[in-house]
Amino acid sequence: MNEFKYVDKIKSPDDVKAIDEKELPILAEEVRKVLIDTVSKTGGHLASNLGVVELTIALHRVFDSPQDQIVWDVGHQVYTHKLFTGRYDDFSTLRQQGGLSGFSRPYESRHDIFFSGHSSTSISAAYGLSSAKTLNNDKHHVIAVIGDGALTGGLAYEGLNNAGRSKDRLIVILNDNKMSISKNVGSLAKHLAVVRSKPLYFKAKNAFAKFIVNIPFIGQKLKRRMLRIKAKLKNIIFGRTIFEDMGFRYMGPINGHNIELLIDALESAKNLKTPVLIHINTIKGRGYNHAEENPSDFHGVSKFDINTGDPIYVGSNFSAEFGKYLCSLAENDGRICAVTAAMSLGTGLDEFSEKYPKRFFDVGIAEEHAVTFSSGLSKDGMLPVFAVYSSFLQRCYDQLVHDVSLQGLKVILGIDRAGFVGEDGESHNGLLDVALLNSIPKTTVYSPATYKELQEDLYKAFYEDGGFVAVRYPRGAENALADEIEINSGNFDVFGEENAKIVIATYGRLFFNAYKAMKKLKENGIDVKILKLNRIIPIDKKSVSKVENAEKIYFFEEGIKSGGVGEHFACILLEKGYTGQYKIVAVENQYVAQASTKELMKKFNFDCDGMVKIITEGE
Q1: pLDDT number for residue 189
Q2: Alpha carbon of 583 to those of 85, 141, 550, 566: distances in Å?
Q3: Is 367 a catalytic residue?
Q4: Do both 441 and 533 map to the same domain?
Q5: 531 domain-assigned
Q6: Same domain for 451 and 554?
Q7: Which residues on adjacent β-strands are paired with residue 171?
């Protein structure tokens, strides 16, 4: 007997519209079962998706996707949307190689309007879409769904500021699951918020306005006076919101788990020919106790036990070690400050935030601000470290150039998730940070392969190097060989036969795969030595001298090829007159879709077998 009554039969949004409205809570319950079961096996973003189930149902009841276009901010809450747009049968492949992405991807479905993965972009994108519709005389709507967290990003306000001036059919839904934004006082305000969301309210209001206007001689004057009185009364009860100041019609706050009320509000907004902002309140993790109690822990999760909520794998990782060592340094140095852009858990700063709350700064999802703020801290004698994911660092280029490097200020970056991150895919793989930083003058970058190196590099960043310094490290744990291989944590290290004519040059965690490849090649009668770089920007020219007499050099780099360390290493070799063979094995200029890190290492020949294959074929 089939477990579900509705969800497994939905092939398009039309099937959602066909369900009796009284049965929609059953559909919501079924969706939550699918989400919890699937994410427990694949990992992914759970709490955020559980919070928008009713909203997604209401959106697909009221609007006609994809003619009406829904733009999801970040896109980490689109799982229900995927289930309703013909992807139920493939949902078990979520975040797997060749399967469904964990974010909105237009190549996956015509219902996914915009490529997503980063925060605070939805309003600007939706405004562009709605403006295009206005120009094309298209009467369909554009809906941006943005969370209160994403609203801490400055780009969201740039979008609001521009969109509010328009006459487009644009609806912004603010999914508020934590932060109180607009003032509302007592039960009267709550009641009126419900009334104002009803379509009948707007019909009656418009009819009354027409009646007043048609009164001979005094109609227009009376209407203006009533509007002024109404506005003052409304502001007393609700308080005027920033959204209204920007030109939006404001509706809310509304219970985001009441499907009937959501449908009424969306229908009302649909009838208004002006930008509208609907403010809804939701609960992150709704329907799964473990996620409701600990929404932060279930924001982005690995595989977990459904009954207990416990992760399947628990162990140390580079993020945790970074945070732990930073705490030990801060204990003896009151100048050290930690900065995060709403990612204290992800970047390992939760312990720091508890131990040194006055020196911990969570600036919200505002990476650009975080960098310039850090430069201000530095200017007046503090030692700030900004911990940020590699892919989110992309937002900060101008600030790194103008506010840090150009100023000659001491700012340290802890670049987390450098290299492949796996299942989060194109928008989250950290493949561009090295090429980005290579173009900025007066920059020092370390890429440790072990926890011990991470500690030593951080110490050097604080107390030995001047100016702008970055320490980049991968997602996950250090290699099991870390305790077996003695690594000199200088700028570089050399392993293997001194006179070997074949060299593997690399950095970061790829070193361990290179070490295995060296051993395997030795067994096949091929002598290889390894040049392991630790400081990758600027390259220590002494390291080049160690390999300039080799006949063949293979540079393996877990990052984009163009602008990477391999190209810069080649330039130094050429300047020295190198005449041997040189090959860079890196990610050619492309974006890399989701797959496990192990699968990606194999695909790009970064694992032991891939390195052996390339070197053997080159013989």
Answers
A1: 44
A2: 45, 52, 13, 9
A3: yes
A4: no
A5: yes
A6: no
A7: 143, 276
Of the listed 30, 367, 557, 558, which one is catalytic? Answer: 367
Q: What is the pLDDT of residues 181-237, one digit of tens each?
A: 334 335 534 544 554 455 555 555 555 556 665 677 666 666 556 555 555 555 555
Q: How many structural domains are present in the chain?
A: 3
Residue 509: predicted pLDDT: 98
Identify the CATH number of the domain in which residue 446 sits. 3.40.50.970
**Which of 34, 36, 29, 4 lies closest to 308, judged by CA?**
36
CATH number for position 528: 3.40.50.920
Asked whether residue 463 falls in the same domain as residue 541, the answer is no
Range of the domain at 112: 7-180+275-290
Q: What pLDDT is recorded for position 181?
A: 35
Sort 425 into a burial class: Cβ within 10 Å, 0-12 / 13-18 / 19+.
buried
> Minimal CA–CA distance to 155: which of 116, 125, 185, 183?
125
Of residues 485, 55, 5, 413, the one with CA closest to residue 254: 55
The answer to whether the CB of 374 falls within 8 A of the CB of 386 is: yes
How far is Cα 203 from Cα 222, in angstroms, rounded to an integer? 20
Examine residue 364 and state whether it is found in any structural domain, yes or no. yes
Which candidate in 196, 395, 535, 561 is catalytic? 395
371/455 same-domain check: yes
For residue 200, the model assigns a pLDDT of 57
Q: Which two tokens stand for residue 47?
A: 């709490």
Nearest to 384, CA basis, from 412, 364, 361: 412
Interatomic CA distance for residues 472 and 411, integer angstroms: 14
Q: Using H for helix, E for strand and C for coil, what is the string for 227-257?
A: HHHHHHHHHHHHCCCHHHHCCCEEEEEEECC
Do both 502 and 453 map to the same domain?
no
Say yes or no: 408 and 495 in one domain: no
Total number of residues shown for the chain: 619
Give the per-residue pLDDT at 195: 44
Which residue stretches of the chain have pLDDT < 70? Answer: 1-2, 179-214, 217-239, 314, 619
Query: What gap in Å lies between CA 535 and CA 310, rounded to an integer?
Result: 38
- Whole-number Å distance between alpha carbons of 488 and 534: 9
CB of 151 closer than 8 Å to CB of 172: no
Alpha-carbon distance values, 566 to 132, 345, 586 (Å): 43, 33, 8
Within-domain flag for 253? no
User: Is 395 a residue of the active site?
Assistant: yes
Please tell me the distance from the alpha carbon of residue 580 to that of residue 564, in angstroms, as a whole number.
20
- Model-wide pTM > 0.70: yes
Q: How far apart are CA 553 and CA 178, in angstroms?
A: 54
Contact (Cβ atoms closer than 8 angstroms) between residue 418 and residue 473: yes
Considering the domain boundaries, does residue 344 fall inside one? yes
